[in-house]
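Please fill in the sequence for the structure shown.

STRUCTURE ENCODING:
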C-alpha cells in the first residue's frame, strides 16, 4: 500500500476520473483490487451504466506512445509482443518514464501463474488439462521470444542501448534482453492489457486493470475501437480523406491529375523529452465523479469502466466495506485462468475437459485415421461435445449423416438433455463414450477423490489471507481438480442413465 499515494498522484496528473463510489483496496491474496467505497453516502443501489472510472487514452501505456515507439514495426505496434517490449523498456528507464508510478505498482511477475510453480506443486495437477495448457503455453512463449523478441533486440541493439544511456538506466543489457525477463513481463502484461482501439492496439489502462475477474461480473470496460489507424482520431482526418480520394480514383471518379497525394500524411516521431510541459501549460488535478457524471463526456478519447448491471450494496458492518467489483476477462476455462492469470474459480461455467488423448488412443487401437477438426471434450455441465459424439459415431458406423437435423444429432441432444429417452440403437456409441470417460478419470493420480471430497477440503483449508504461497497454490490445484472431477461425474452419470434406460 506504500506505493498507492504515488499512484493516486499519477492519476491526478493524468486527469483520470475515479468515482467516489469506489476505492482501491489491497489484500495479501488479491493484491490491489477495487471495492465499493466504505462511505455512508454510497446509495443502497448503484444503477446500471454508472461511470466508475474514466481514463484519457493519453494516460494509457501502449506501443504508439512508449519510449521505443519509433523502433516498433507495424506488425509489432498492435501485438502482444509490442506492448510487452514497451513495458520492459518503460520500466527500464525507471522514474524517467511518465508511467513510473503506475508501473511501480506491478509485481516483478505474476508468481501464481503455473509456469512459476515448483515441480512438486505441479504434481498436484497430474492428469488435469492445466498441465497440457501449461506445456502449450510454454511452447508459445518460447516461440514468441525466439521468433520476434530476440530478432528485435539484435536488429535494434545500438538504438536501444543508446536509449538506455540517454535515460541513465542502470539495466544490464544481457539481463534485460533475457528470456526470463521477457517471460516475467509477459505474465504481467497478458494479465492486465486491454484492446484500446485500432490505432493504439493493446494497452495498459490504469485503474481499469485493477478489477479482478468473475463469471458474474458487474462492471465492463468500454473504449471506442473504430478510430483512424494512422493517428487515432475518431473524426474525419487527413488519413481518412486520403483513403477516400484513393478509393474514388480507383473507382474512376477522380482523374490522376486532380490530386498529387500518393501517401497518407506522415506522423512526427521524436524522442520524448523529460521536460516537455503540457501543451496548454495548465496544472492537472484529480477529479472525482459521482452518479456516473464526468467533466468530459468524450467517449472517443477515453477508456471507461461502467457498471453493467444494477448492484445492491451490501452492509457488512461498515457500509459497503470489502464488497469487491468484478470485470470479466472473457469466456476462459479454469486451466487457462491458472496458466495465464494465476488463479482458478470453483464452478467456472466456461470450463471444459478434453478427452482427445483417450479418444486418439481408441482410434489407434481400431487402426483408424484421426480426423481434423475441433477436439473432443465435455463442458461444465458434463454435456458431450458435438466433436466427441461425431468422431465416435463415424468411427463405429462410417460416414453417416451428422448434420444439424440428422437423427444422430437428435440423439446427441437427447443424451445431453434427457438421457433416459435415448433409443436403444444408440447404446453402442454411448458405451464407447462411457469407456473413454472412465479412461479419462484414470489419468488422475489422486486415489479417485470425488469433487464433493475436494469441496470439503476447500471448505476446511486455511483462509487465503493467512496462507502461505504453497497453500494458496494447493487451493487452486484442488479447485481445478474439483471442477474437472465434477464435469466427469456429470458426464458419466448422463451416459450410465442413458444405457440403463435404453
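FILLED IN BY: designer on duty
SEQUENCE:
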Amino acid at each position: 500500500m506504500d506505493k498507492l499515494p504515488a499512484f493516486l498522484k499519477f492519476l491526478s496528473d493524468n486527469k483520470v476520473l475515479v468515482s467516489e463510489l469506489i476505492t482501491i483496496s489491497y489484500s495479501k491474496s488479491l493484491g490491489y483490487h477495487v471495492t465499493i467505497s466504505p462511505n455512508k453516502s454510497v446509495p443502497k443501489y448503484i444503477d446500471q451504466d454508472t461511470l466508475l472510472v474514466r481514463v484519457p487514452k493519453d494516460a494509457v501505456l501502449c506501443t504508439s506512445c512508449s519510449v521505443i515507439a519509433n523502433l516498433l514495426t507495424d506488425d509489432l505496434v498492435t501485438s502482444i509482443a509490442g506492448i510487452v517490449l514497451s513495458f520492459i523498456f518503460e520500466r527500464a528507464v525507471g522514474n524517467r518514464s511518465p508511467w513510473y508510478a503506475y508501473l511501480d505498482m506491478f509485481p516483478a511477475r505474476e508468481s501464481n501463474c503455473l509456469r512459476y510453480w515448483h515441480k512438486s506443486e505441479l504434481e498436484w495437477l497430474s492428469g488435469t488439462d492445466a498441465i497440457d495448457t501449461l506445456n502449450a503455453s510454454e511452447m508459445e512463449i518460447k516461440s514468441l521470444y525466439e521468433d520476434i523478441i530476440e530478432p528485435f533486440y539484435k536488429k535494434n541493439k545500438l538504438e536501444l542501448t543508446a536509449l538506455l544511456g540517454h535515460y541513465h538506466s542502470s539495466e544490464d543489457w544481457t539481463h534485460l534482453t533475457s528470456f526470463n525477463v521477457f517471460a516475467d513481463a509477459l505474465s504481467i502484461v497478458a494479465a492486465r492489457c486491454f484492446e484500446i482501439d485500432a490505432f493504439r492496439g493493446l494497452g495498459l489502462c490504469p485503474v481499469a486493470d485493477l478489477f479482478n475477474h468473475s463469471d458474474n461480473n458487474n462492471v465492463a470496460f468500454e473504449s471506442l475501437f473504430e478510430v483512424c489507424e494512422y493517428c487515432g482520431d475518431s473524426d474525419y482526418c487527413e488519413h481518412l480523406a486520403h483513403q477516400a480520394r484513393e478509393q474514388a480514383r480507383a473507382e474512376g471518379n477522380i482523374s490522376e491529375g486532380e490530386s498529387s497525394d500518393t501517401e497518407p500524411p506522415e506522423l512526427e516521431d521524436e524522442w520524448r523529452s523529460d521536460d516537455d510541459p503540457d501543451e496548454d501549460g495548465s496544472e492537472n488535478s484529480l477529479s472525482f465523479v459521482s452518479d456516473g457524471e464526468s467533466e468530459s463526456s468524450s467517449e472517443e478519447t477515453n477508456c471507461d469502466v461502467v457498471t453493467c448491471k444494477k448492484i445492491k450494496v451490501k452492509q457488512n458492518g461498515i457500509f459497503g466495506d470489502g464488497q469487491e467489483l468484478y470485470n470479466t476477462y472473457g469466456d476462459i476455462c479454469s486451466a487457462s485462468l491458472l496458466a495465464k492469470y494465476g488463479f482458478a474459480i470453483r464452478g467456472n461455467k466456461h470450463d471444459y475437459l478434453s478427452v482427445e488423448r483417450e479418444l486418439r488412443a481408441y482410434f489407434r487401437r481400431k487402426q483408424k485415421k484421426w480426423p481434423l477438426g475441433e477436439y473432443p471434450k465435455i463442458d461444465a455441465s458434463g454435456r458431450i461435445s458435438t466433436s466427441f459424439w461425431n468422431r465416435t459415431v463415424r468411427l463405429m458406423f462410417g460416414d453417416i449423416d451428422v448434420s444439424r437435423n440428422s437423427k444422430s444429432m437428435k440423439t446427441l441432444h437427447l443424451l445431453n438433455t434427457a438421457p433416459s429417452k435415448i433409443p436403444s440403437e444408440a447404446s453402442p456409441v454411448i458405451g464407447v463414450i462411457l469407456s473413454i470417460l472412465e479412461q479419462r478419470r484414470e489419468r488422475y493420480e489422486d486415489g479417485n477423490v470425488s469433487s464433493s471430497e475436494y469441496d470439503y477440503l476447500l471448505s476446511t483449508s486455511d483462509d487465503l489471507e493467512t496462507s502461505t504461497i504453497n497453500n494458496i497454490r494447493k487451493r487452486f490445484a484442488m479447485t481445478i481438480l474439483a471442477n474437472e472431477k465434477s464435469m466427469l461425474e456429470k458426464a458419466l452419470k448422463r451416459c450410465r442413465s442413458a444405457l440403463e434406460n435404453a
